[in-house]
Amino acid sequence: MPVKTFNWNFVTDQRIQQLKGQVRAKEERIVQLETENAVLHLKLAEYYEIIGRSNSKAVQLCSLYNEQQDLRRNTYLNLIQICQEVQKLKQELKDFQSFSRLLVSNFHHQYQECLSQIVDAVQGTQIENENLQSFQARTVDLEQSLQEINELYQVEKRKRKELHNNLVELRGNIRVHCRIRPLLPFDTESVEPAFQNRSISLSEKVIHAMDDETVLVRCNRPGHPLFNKTFQFERVYSPLESQTIVFGDVRPLITSLLDGYNVCIMTYGQTGSGKSYTMLGPHSESDAISPSEADHEMGIIPRAAGELFRLLSKNPTVNPRVEVSIVEVYNNELFDLLAKDSSGTIVGVKRDVITTKEGKSNVPLLTYELVESPAEFMKLINKSLQLRVRHPTLVHADSSRSHLVVTITLTMSVPFDSYVDQQSSQKLCKEILCTTPQKVMKGEKPSFPLRGSSPASAPLDLTEQQKQVQTKLQLVDLAGSECIGMSGVTGTVLRETSFINRSLAALADVLGALSEHRGHIPYRNSKLTHLLQDSIGGDAKLLVLLCVSPCQKYLAETLQSLGFGSRARQVQRVQAKRRNLLVSGKSK
Ligand SMILES: Nc1ncnc2c1ncn2[C@@H]1O[C@H](COP(=O)(O)OP(=O)(O)OP(=O)(O)O)[C@@H](O)[C@H]1O
């Protein structure tokens, strides 16, 4: 046998090739698997990411779930609470319902009661209404009769006043008015250290106007007995009453002047009590007084001038002549405040007062100025006020230290038969001619400067059947009485004060002597009383205006003034006489 030779190399190569093919296939498979693995890894990564996101969502959902669980639990708890509350409310509602039912039944009961009460009340009201209506009708009747009684009372009061005034005139009594001034700032200022801790009670009002004729002094100081006293006067002005009201009572006296009466108006009172205010109105050295209707504070003097010229302007046929003299009594000396020096400047010149043979007072050489209007008149007043002596005292910072006497002499020509009483006219004519220093011929023009002449010597142009009538209006602003201790004055002012007090005491003495009808009346004890002799004791219509302060501080002085006024009222002089004739014209 042949030994066949086997080719091992070939088989090995084949096998290697085969294995290599298998290795390649395996390697390809590995690559494929690795690729797949990589893809799977990628996918895994994606899934991881998705899982991560899902996890966080799951966590969120879990917390949401937890929250919801909490909420549910809370809601459940709340629900339980609410249920309990509802139960409670239900119970309360039940209670309330039963209470309401009780209330309603009570209310109903009360309502019924009220209703029956209302019915009763309505019935009562109807009865009351009927009563009221009848009362109203009665009230209207009563009111009407009260008004009638009131009107009657006013008429009677006026009549009584007129009668009283007539009686005062018939008896020749001095008419006394009293003016209570308002409390002023200086009333509360203390006078001296000793008074300082009492200043509150010192400024207390103790003087009151009870009605328009009665002053009440009522003082109730601790530790003192009650002082309660009334004083009667013809008129009492309360602190509220104005200058216009005061002048309203003075106005008729101006008419009297034109009717032929002599008139004298004087203010009396303690220093600072309102005398100059009442007579002149507010004024000062720098502030002149001008007559103006708009000035409600104007005093009697400017108003009297206005009224006089107003009345004269209504009756120009009387051919009036108005002359003025102004005199100051200072330290018992008389000064002519219209006297002029050689340069024509007004200077105060000393004059004297004498008594004529007929027993009348006269001031020789006194200056009389002719005035034709209130403005001219006030110009003279203002000039003379500049000369008037004033000094401050503790009571009044601008105290007048002299008595001021303004005299208006009115001469009129009137029809001869307008005055009937021939006999008395002849007597008067005689009287006046005797006191007249110059003889005046019928119809003669005055051939004199008015200064230094008596107004009685100035005749007017008289036509047939006319005669001259001359009347005098004296306006007197007295200096204020004062307590030397309280006014705190020394030196010159002290001397002035004692002169003022002495002259006022002399005035009181004259009134005392007149009221007692003594044979001798001490007019000559003082220049003041001597000058005013004819007005005080004669036949002039005399009005004394007492000025008083309302406060307790000046009680003593006020009582002194009220006492003076009361004594003045008692004085019975001759009845006021109408001036009939001065100088006859070409009379029948
Ligand atoms: N009725 C009143 N209304 C308002 N003020 C008044 C009144 N009365 C007085 N007075 C004021 O009181 C002060 C004192 O008044 P007045 O000067 O008139 O006093 P008097 O009595 O004249 O004093 P004296 O005697 O010292 O001169 C003034 O300032 C004045 O203006």
From TrEMBL:
Coiled coil spans: 16-43, 132-173
Keywords for the protein's UniProt record, in alphabetical order: ATP-binding, Coiled coil, Cytoplasm, Cytoskeleton, Microtubule, Motor protein, Nucleotide-binding
GO molecular function per UniProt: ATP binding; ATP hydrolysis activity; microtubule binding; microtubule motor activity
Membrane-spanning parts: none
GO cellular component terms, A-Z: cytoplasm; kinesin complex; microtubule
Localization annotation: Cytoplasm, Cytoskeleton
Domain Kinesin motor positions: 173-571
Signal peptide: none
InterPro entries: Kinesin-like_fam (IPR027640), Kinesin_motor_CS (IPR019821), Kinesin_motor_dom (IPR001752), Kinesin_motor_dom_sf (IPR036961), P-loop_NTPase (IPR027417)
GO BP terms: microtubule-based movement
Predominant location: cytoplasm
SMART domains: KISc (SM00129)
Binding site for ATP: G269, Q270, T271, G272, S273, G274, K275, S276
Family affiliation: Belongs to the TRAFAC class myosin-kinesin ATPase superfamily. Kinesin family.
Protein name: Kinesin-like protein
Organism name: Monodelphis domestica (Gray short-tailed opossum)
Taxon lineage: Eukaryota, Metazoa, Chordata, Craniata, Vertebrata
